[in-house]
Amino acid sequence: MLNFAVAKYQFVKIGKIFYIHYMNEIKKMVEVLRSGGLILYPTDTVWGIGCDATNEEAVRKIFKLKKRADSKSLIVLVDSVDRLAAYVDDVPDVAWDLAEVSDTPLTIIYPTGKNLAPNVMAEDGSVGIRVTNEEFSKALCYAFRKPIISTSANISGNPTPENFYQIEDEIKNGVDYVAEARRDEDEKKSPSSIIKFEKNGTFAVLRK
Description:
Elements: E1 9-14, E2 17-22, H1 23-34, E3 39-41, E4 48-50, H2 56-66, E5 75-78, H3 84-87, H4 93-101, E6 106-110, E7 127-131, H5 135-144, E8 148-149, E9 151-152, H6 169-172, E10 177-178, E11 193-197, E12 203-207
Parallel strand pairs: 3-10, 5-7, 6-11
Antiparallel strand pairs: 1-2, 3-4, 4-9, 5-8, 6-7, 11-12
Helix pairs in contact: 1-5
């Protein structure tokens, strides 16, 4: 289990990389996730609404907050390609390579997900997973040790916020914890690229 220090900063080992993070904040967020709550947090793309991707009731809260049809699937974040086998049946070889070497945020939709809340996956059983290399979200996923939902912080149908300041109060007030990290950044962020794999191994680019 990850050792959270009382000190404000601590080194966290993620694979071969060491990051410095606000460990007290990550500890609080992990507690919220474990209790079935919702978080608002910075990711490798836009700010996201998150919850435990294995908790069906928590996922249902996200659909309710976003006023989004629960027939739509959600994207899942993990901290390492090593997590994929636990949540995907038969990861194609090329998908392993893409997930590991992509130098920009890339969401891969796999044909068959497993060990996730049923309402995370699409009606055909597929699931979109992204390996995050952004420091904060990577450390959060590492500390939680389970996949975390990452869906844009907006009411369904409204524009996707490009930074924290553009997030609606309804979203901020509708979650159980709002991350302090990276709030002051005004750089505009955009969603990830998306590639979808079929069961026969073919794939298509859905969003560049």
